[in-house]
Each structure stands twice: as structure tokens, then as C-alpha cells.
Amino acid sequence: MERNTSKGSVGFIGIGTMGREMALNLLKAGHVVRAYDLNAEALAALAGHGALPAASPAEAARESDIAITMLPDTPQVEDVIYGAGGLLETPPAGRLVIDMSTISPVAVRRIQADLAARQVGFVDAPVSGGPIGARNATLSIMAGGEAADFARAEPYFRAMGTTITHVGGPGAGQTVKLCNQLVCALNLQAISEALALGRAAGVDLAQLRQVLLGGSAASWMLDKLGPAMIAGDASAGFRIDLMFKDLRLVQEQAQALSVPLPGTALVTTQYIDARAHGEGGNGNQALFRVYDRMSNQSRG
Ligand code: NAD
């Protein structure tokens, strides 16, 4: 597609499962994308779709209007911001950085303050919707930051998502995302328990799912991940390892604020169990295997 120079250019750092699809949608919307990732193969593949490969975060950002990061966790984002040749040292020409990874809200506030001291805006904008939402540009984007920075970021969000909400000041996007993750994990746990009970009682699990979807127990998890749970299919989508990371971030924030979250504590132990059984690289629906093991059953 022809690039439209009136559309802002983006230095995109982190083109993994999610970032690759998001960068492709920015390209489709006509933005110039300068991409950087530690993975040279991923970079070459994206270059085949029109992205300009960069040799460092600084190179991706230097001539771009904004920089977007989509990295695994807090240390990687801090590395790209604070490391040698990072975005603090070499901010994007348009002086706006958006982090769309799921990271610590405490780290977000520190990064925002450090960038603000250099007259660079920062928006934390984690996403929900998974790789399918990323591919279809239907992500839900929850953004925290100053109103003026959000306003500048919004046109870029429109290329990647459909539900775009400014939820508050710096770190608020991450807090809302962590609330989202807590609900997702506990919902998966509830579905696993219902399937374990239904199976033991000899109920048809496909029919059980259909009935629940028609009533007040309906949920995105049951709709989208239920079939894989029933089939015993643990293949990756959103990985167990990433949810475990998110639950750690939930607990860190809860402890800092003295908020008791007993449900989160319990489901976190089941994620530890899943990882101990080598399921870290599997999709989140593999939480049902914890229940398979407890009841000595196998569905896969
Ligand atoms: P991923 O592991 O597939 O991709 C991360 C990319 O970052 C990789 O390509 C990796 O090479 C690159 N990277 C790591 N460290 C780097 C560094 N220092 N410099 C440059 N590149 C570096 O992860 P993902 O699934 O795309 O998730 C990214 C973020 O989005 C995570 O915070 C995750 O929690 C969040 N998220 C993921 C999903 C999902 O379904 N996968 C959904 C919502 C949110």
C-alpha cells in the first residue's frame, strides 16, 4: 500500500506474536513503520511487508513521529527506554512514546516521569483481544497518561483497535489491564471446575458449554476457549507464561495497596502447577489440565 506522508510515522519495537500484527495494521493504514526486534528473522519477515528494518531502538525512533513498544515484560521495556541507545537517550522526533505491553504500573509512573523531564510524552496502552484481535485490528486498548498525549496517540490506536478508552493518568491503563487479566484467569478456573464436575457426572461437555453460553454463565473465555478445553487442545494462543507474569503484576500491585485478592492467589498457584508440568508455552486454556491431573483424567 502507498504510504501517506500526512500520516505519522512509527518506530515499532517488539514485533512478536502481537507486535507483528499491530505493525502490519499500521502499515495497512498508511503509516511508515520503522521496526526493531532482537529477532532478526521476524524483522526480515516484516520488511517483506513494507516495514523499514532498524538496527536499534534509537534508529527506529530517531526519524519517527512516535515510538511504540510491544515487549514481553517490565525489564525489556526498561531496557529499551533506559538502555544504551534507548528511547530516553534518543526519543522519537515527535516526542511521544507509547508502551502497549503489559507491565508494572509502578514502572510506568517512573518511566513517564523520566520521559516528561525530557519533554517526551508517555502513554501506557496495554491491549486485550489476543493475536486474533491484533490481526483483525479489533483490539481493546486501555490507555493511561496525560490527556494531550492520549489525543496524539489516538489516531495510531485507531489503526490497531476498535474499543479505545482513556482510563486515567499514567499507569491507569496497566491497572485496568491487570483487572482484566484477573477476571480472565478466574473465569478460566471457573470454567475448568464446571467441566471437571460435568465430566465426572457424565454430562456431554459440548452441550454443557452451549447451555452455559445461553445463560448468565456466558463468557468470552467459554465461547472462544471452551471448545479447545473440551477437546483437550492445549496449543498456544495467549501463553500460560504470559498470564503467570500478569498475575504476578496483579499481586505486586495488590500488595503495594494492601488489597486482599484470595481468588487471584489461588489461581496463581494453579498457574505455578501448570508451569511445573511444562505447560508454560501452552495456551491459557491448558489451565484445565490442572483439573485433569487432580482428578486423574485426560482429555487430550
Ligand atoms: P512475544 O514474546 O511473542 O513478543 C515479544 C517480542 O519482543 C519478541 O519478538 C522478542 O524478540 C522481542 N524482544 C524482547 N526483548 C526485546 C528487546 N530488549 N528489544 C527488542 N525486542 C525485544 O510476546 P507477545 O505475545 O507479542 O506479547 C507482548 C506483550 O503483549 C506482553 O506484555 C503480553 O503480556 C502482552 N499481551 C499479549 C497477548 C497475547 O495474546 N499474546 C494479548 C494481550 C497482551
UniProtKB/TrEMBL annotation:
<dbReference type="InterPro" id="IPR008927">
    <property type="entry name" value="6-PGluconate_DH-like_C_sf"/>
</dbReference>
<feature type="domain" description="3-hydroxyisobutyrate dehydrogenase-like NAD-binding">
    <location>
        <begin position="171"/>
        <end position="291"/>
    </location>
</feature>
<dbReference type="GO" id="GO:0051287">
    <property type="term" value="F:NAD binding"/>
</dbReference>
<dbReference type="GO" id="GO:0016491">
    <property type="term" value="F:oxidoreductase activity"/>
</dbReference>
<feature type="active site">
    <location>
        <position position="177"/>
    </location>
</feature>
<dbReference type="Pfam" id="PF14833">
    <property type="entry name" value="NAD_binding_11"/>
</dbReference>
<dbReference type="InterPro" id="IPR029154">
    <property type="entry name" value="HIBADH-like_NADP-bd"/>
</dbReference>
<keyword id="KW-0520">NAD</keyword>
<dbReference type="InterPro" id="IPR036291">
    <property type="entry name" value="NAD(P)-bd_dom_sf"/>
</dbReference>
<dbReference type="GO" id="GO:0050661">
    <property type="term" value="F:NADP binding"/>
</dbReference>
<dbReference type="Pfam" id="PF03446">
    <property type="entry name" value="NAD_binding_2"/>
</dbReference>
<dbReference type="InterPro" id="IPR013328">
    <property type="entry name" value="6PGD_dom2"/>
</dbReference>
<protein>
    <submittedName>
        <fullName>NAD(P)-dependent oxidoreductase</fullName>
    </submittedName>
</protein>
<dbReference type="InterPro" id="IPR015815">
    <property type="entry name" value="HIBADH-related"/>
</dbReference>
<dbReference type="InterPro" id="IPR006115">
    <property type="entry name" value="6PGDH_NADP-bd"/>
</dbReference>
<keyword id="KW-0560">Oxidoreductase</keyword>
<feature type="domain" description="6-phosphogluconate dehydrogenase NADP-binding">
    <location>
        <begin position="10"/>
        <end position="168"/>
    </location>
</feature>
